[in-house]
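Worked Example 4.2. Consider the chain below.
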Amino acid sequence: MNFISPDFLIFFPVVYGIYLALAKRHRAQNLLLLGTSYFFYAWFDWRFCGLLLVSTLLDFYIALVMYNVDRTAVGRNAAATVDLRKISLLISLATQLGILATFKYYDFFVLSARTALHGVGLDLPLPLLQAVLPAGISFYTFQTLSYVIDVYDRKIAPTTSLVNFGAYVAYFPHLVAGPIQRAKQLLVKIEEPRHLTAETILSGFYLALYGYVVKVVLADNMAIIVDEHFRNVRATGADIVLGTYAFAFQIYGDFLGYTSIARGISRMMGIEMTLNFRLPYFAIDPSDFWRRWHIALSTWLRDYLYIRLGGNRLGTARTYVNLMIAMALGGLWHGAGGNFVLWGVYHGLLLCLFLPWRRGKPREEGLQHAASGFYLWLRVILYFQLTCFGWLIFRAHGIHDVYDKLGLVLLHTRLADFDMASAARVCAYALPFMAFELYQYRTDRLEPWAAWSAPARVGWVALILVIISVLKPPYQSPFIYFQF
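Applying the procedure from the previous section yields the following structure tokens:
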């Protein structure tokens, strides 16, 4: 079941109808959210519901242990108190990251070890696990870890309701592909009674509908073009270039579509989720890009990894090291493949190269105002090219495939080889979308329809429905971030 499947179009109206009927019964609503979220997750693979439950129970009780250690610390040895809290945190980190590593990275590390040992003349029969990757494990693992770390840092007090915490972890709009939610962002909203208004419900509906059209019309049509070019064994450098640009819009439309639907249906239930994208292809430099793209992950890496490693407080050399570690692990978070690590390293290098230039500039309130006119748009266009180079690495299948495709692009790209029909298809789908994003950028409104009149909104909905019916591709592509 996913947001654009017929199953979900039956599931959500039924759940939402019951949810509205329970409007004055807050606990009953949360029990409904918990039960239906596990049902939603079981639709992918019921066997992994137990894994989700283990992660939930572990961090729920670990957080309570740490909190109770603080409350009962009077008269106790201070060092013993610190040790108990650290041990609790380490148990959570070791267990959660151990589960994630086992299911997602074990085979990758074993194969890498085999290759390294073979290079020195050793062939050890290291076994492979070949496990099915549980849907959303990277997202809910980071979410529960952020909760435990925040309790450890005494930034929040733990919840005493297992139902509320279970609903926070398993909440179906974000469960399998984010955005990664912090406790202070989502848990507090689950613990509070929701008060729905007609405007809130309509606002959520408009956002979800926008996400649907972005996914179905932009991302899924681009996916066809991407597959045509990347799976062609006789592909030229021109094919890879064109496929890479198509993939840039596919992955953006796919993930933006998912998170817009997730945020929209959550808003319809009176629970506002955090923004995950802020027009990333209008970024003017690497730092600006990561304030716009996958904001939930980039801020998680900043707060729980980069800053804890020392951030930029320990000198220039250490800042570069911390950036590279954070970005490399951010790349690895996306998947067990050398190309994902290389993608993270590539973006880390961009950040490091940009850092000296950034330090030489006066601090601005917003990077979007750092330049104007021709210079601004030149920076936007140039950084988009650097972003697309990264997407080529991301879309490849392993390091060897990156090497092969880069070789094609650099050595075998000729203007005469470009498939103009495919290029026209890319432009036909991408340019109207980017024109709308330019409108969002110029008006500084990510949901500009909120300021429109009622007739304009009705016309907007009608136009979207027509676009979907006319331009919907022959088949749907799976959400890309489901594999992470």
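The radius of gyration is 24 Å. The chain has a mean pLDDT of 92. Compare this with Example 4.1 before moving on.
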